[in-house]
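Section 5.1 Outputs to date
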Amino acid sequence: MGVFSAMNIGCDGLKVHGMRLDITSKNIANLDTPNYVRKIPLVVSTDRSSFISVMNQMKESTFGAGTLPYSTGSVAMAGVVEDPTLGDKIYKPGHPDADENGYIRASNVDPLVEITDAIMAQRAYEASLAIITLSKAMADRAATIGS
């Protein structure tokens, strides 16, 4: 894996986890919005190798030489889905969104879940930034070897 491949993986992570933070912040902002349905980001791995192929590659390689297979994948945003759980019913007969019985559906956003998701996305974002920083430092060191 080259330095630029590592930087690309870090950049993909910054994009994806930045979008996760955006979606989580929108969920928190709509905590008290009636009929709002929580959005869940779908993050997937773009690694093309399967576990079996990695194990076969390890079996065939010589461990004495220190050659181990590495993953060349990254992460990507596969989309956003809505949380299927229903919010509580609240009786507000004068509300414009009320049904024929006078009930509105509260948002199904749980603030504790959203804060936890935001912390996890923030840490993943910071890890992706660290990958880019370390890759840049390695490239700088490699450029000064010949000087």
